[in-house]
Amino acid sequence: MTILYEVGDSLYINLTNKCPCACTFCLRQTRNHMENSGSLWLEHTPSLEEVLAEFPKYDMTRYREIVFCGFGEPMEALDVLLAVAKYCKAHYSQPIRINTNGLAALIHKKPVAPLLEGLIDTVSISLNTPNKDRYHELVRPKFGDISYDAMLKFAKDCTKYVPKVVLTTVETTLTKEEEAQCLEICKSIGAVYRIRPWVD
After folding, report:
1. 3-state SS string for 57-93
2. Rounded to whole angstroms, how far apart are CA atoms 54 and 87?
3. pLDDT of 28 above 80
4. Residue 179 maps to which CATH number?
5. Which letter does DSSP use for residue 182 in this model?
6. How many independent structural domains does the chain possess?
7. Contact, 21 vs 76, CB < 8 A?
8. Residue 138 pLDDT > 70, yes or no?
9. Could you list the residue range(s) of the whole structural domain that residue 44 is in?
């Protein structure tokens, strides 16, 4: 099964199939891979030992960044994620990023942002829209109406512990007015706003 995979000049870590959301636009509804990754559907949730055993198979000098991002929400596998990040910090020089839906505090029923300090360089969170009601229509989180505010709180909390916090939307999905509203949200919590390209 595919635990590590390459996208461009970054090495991605695929930790879990689990996700608390059922996004209407999720890529895993229409594909099982990214670029040349092979299937990203995991046969089982990999242990820490299984993840670490994959790194010697790769020439780590080739990569600009290490990214926790797979077909599930990487923060679902929080303990393994933190242990792998600690391993990478001890053995490699690349910055480490997490791509997340920002619902980790709801998943684990505790503050998670402080646990990222010293291990994670960038947290990239899917904002998707500046409109709370529209967010819940698009993302369909299992936690219901508290999810949007929880996601923004997580982002704000991360700014205290992580050097770079990014909130993202997808190009062509919002009006310019909505993008301006997203920018203001980011400014208010100290995050960077990024409009990412649509991957079809």
Report:
1. HCCHHHCCEEEECCCCCHHHHHHHHHHHHHHHHHHCC
2. 12
3. no
4. 3.20.20.70
5. H
6. 1
7. no
8. yes
9. 4-196
| Alpha carbon distance 99, 101 (integer Å) | 7
Query: What pLDDT was estimated at residue 170?
Result: 87
Side-chain-side CA neighbours of 139 within 13 Å: the count stands at 30
Could you write out the DSSP letters of every residue in 137-159?
Answer: HHH--TTGGGHHHHHHHHHHHHT
The CB density around residue 190, as the number of other CB atoms within 10 Å, is 12
Tokens encoding 155? 């982002």
Residue matched to tokens 């949730």: 45
- Give yes or no for a contact between 27 and 49, defined as CB atoms under 8 angstroms apart: no
For residue range 43-84, list pLDDT tens digits in order. 999 999 999 999 999 999 999 999 999 889 999 999 999 999
Q: What mean pLDDT comes out for the span 15-34?
A: 74
Nearest Cα to 71, choosing from 107, 115, 37, 108?
37
Q: Which of 146, 166, 153, 32 is nearest to 99 (CA)?
A: 166
